[in-house]
Amino acid sequence: MYWSGDKIVWMNLFRHYLLTLAIRSWQVEAEFYQEEVPEDLDVHVSPQDLQEEFRIAFDDMDKQLTSDYMINSFAEALAKKRRKCFKPELLNYLQWLHLRFLNIVFETNHYHDLTSVSATDPSYTVEEWHKLSLGILKNIGKPLSKSQKTEAHCKIAVSAAAYRINSSLIGDPRYKEYNQLITTFPARYCESIERLMYPDWYVACFMDDASNSSIWGTYGENHTGICLKYRVSGAQDNMHLELYKPVGLDRKGIAQSFQGMPLEKVHYNREHVETNFFTSLGNINPEKSTFWYQGLDGEFSSSAKWFLSDDHHHRERYWKTFDRALTTKINQWHAEQEYRILLKSHINLSAVKDRLLKYRFKNLDGLIFGIKTPLKDRLKAIRIIKGHCENAKRKTFNFYQAFYDPETKSIGHGLMDVSMYWDSIEGNDG
């Protein structure tokens, strides 16, 4: 993920950061009274969502921010030549700007008597902060060689991680959320705003064979696990598995039905997708798009073209980019030969029960026991399968045994002549 856009969207990013920070400053008040504080940052909010006194206070904060020439200078520098700003670099700038944002939020809260939450006095004045900022501004967009870029990414990532660790060790441990508001908020913000781009997604992972010994050693609990083998429908390039999945909302809540869900092949030899945050804000309410794409003078950002256009190709590219990102992994994972079933929806599926999808038992071909699967686990699995077979009136089921093949130096598996209907299978764990 990267950020690339004109000054309008950069200033609106800063305004959104300020809004999210202000809301969090109001929420952490509850912590001082031993009350619950919301776990997640409220990144889907816009100013019109605020109640009257909070809206007045934020408008005051907003005026201070947009009139600060140094904040404007950062937006102009980041917008220059529409350069790509990746997350480690953005986090580096936000950690610096956070000092100024906090100053605006706490002073305004104090003026409007909104909360008792406050920060310690800054170590330097606004004028001194402006002067120190000039050194950072000079280096934004400075041409770097490949090795210099690598060095810069390393330096930023390492310093950001160290900052988070050191920050977590200061402050009163009773007030965790307040401490994070002061110290680690920039990192939480960078992680949270990804939710504005695409809906939450969930994945079930499959492999096209079970012959890799290292995979059995890791995912298979050092060869003691059991592999589930499924029957899928369709051709090799269009496989799918029928699952009972969420399809919409009705009066009772989330409606579900059986539908074929494609098994998407994971690619290990293609470039990772680079996604521009400013042209991928598809998971926000359209009514709130103006907060992101419109300047204070009413002019719209050039980054808004994809969102405002009726051209369906923009939407197709948006979802194609998402799907490509979810099926691309670095080459070190190629031994998995993974396929993925992806569940993504604008329906809220945060509850585990809503994304626990059922498959038809007839599509479970069999179980492959690992080389070292304990006998008691094998017998327990057979008893469970026997119960399912009785319920489904299924007469046969395949049980396979994994073995090491010294000829191919891989893990093979063969069909065992095992009956589920031995009388002693019910209670013998051996």
What keyword list fits this structure?
alpha+beta, 4-stranded mixed β-sheet, 13 helices, 3-stranded antiparallel β-sheet
Q: How much strand content do the residues show? A: 15-25%
Coarse shape: elongated
**Largest sheet features:** 4 strands, mixed
What is the N-to-C order of secondary-structure elements (H for helix, E for strand)? EHHHEHHHHHEHEEEEHHHEEEHEE
Helical fraction: 40-55%
Derived structural class: alpha+beta
Uncertain segments are: none
What is the first-to-last residue Cα distance? 54 Å
The counted number of beta strands is 12
How does this model look, in words?
With 430 residues, the chain is α+β, with helices and mostly antiparallel strands. The protein has a domain at 2-196. The protein is 40% helix and 16% strand. It has 13 helices and twelve strands. The protein has helices at residues 7-27, 52-66, 69-79, 87-112, 126-139, 146-168, 176-182, 185-192, 213-218, 289-293, 305-308, 312-326, 375-392; strands at residues 2-3, 85-86, 201-207, 226-230, 240-250, 253-262, 264-265, 338-344, 358-359, 364-369, 398-405, 410-415. The protein has a four-stranded mixed β-sheet with strand order 4-10-11-12, with no helix packed on it. A three-stranded antiparallel β-sheet has the order 3-8-7, with no helix packed on it. Strands 6-5-9 form a three-stranded antiparallel β-sheet, with no helix packed on it. Strand 5 and strand 6 form a beta hairpin. The longest helix is centred in the first third of the chain and has 26 residues, at 87-112. The mean pLDDT is 88.
